[in-house]
Design a protein that fits this description.
Layout: H1 2-8, H2 14-30, H3 35-44, H4 51-61, H5 72-81, H6 88-102
Helix pairs in contact: 1-2, 2-3, 2-4, 3-4, 4-6, 5-6
Length: 107
């Protein structure tokens, strides 16, 4: 399922990208070992041209702070870049998500 979801995250339709990102986050949350493999697709969503997709990517990455291992700082930097987004909803989602990444990792 993960390869299809990764493809879906690149789809031309906004809703397909949004739902694929959400599903990838669910897979990563349920299977921590898979999280690092899914991060590139989730991170790519942070640079989507559509604000709603960016917001979905941020929301998908927020609960994964304790699952991304050594990529935690890179993910936090990607989310932090969204603080400067001209869309206030994207910036607010990034601010909220960063709280998860600033907290100490849960063992």
């Amino acid at each position: 399922a993960a390869p299809a979801l990764i493809q879906g995250a690149k789809d031309g339709h906004i809703l397909v990208r949004i739902h694929s990102l959400r599903a990838l986050a669910q897979v990563a949350a349920a299977h921590a070992a898979e999280a690092p493999k899914l991060l590139p697709a989730l991170m790519a969503g942070l640079n989507d041209k559509e604000e709603v997709v960016k917001q979905a990517a941020i929301d998908a990455l927020a609960p994964l702070a304790d699952k991304v291992g050594g990529q935690r700082d890179a993910v936090a930097k990607g989310i932090q870049a969204c603080l400067a987004d001209p869309n206030p909803l994207v910036a607010a989602a990034a601010e909220k998500a960063l709280r998860s990444y600033k907290a100490p990792p849960t063992p």
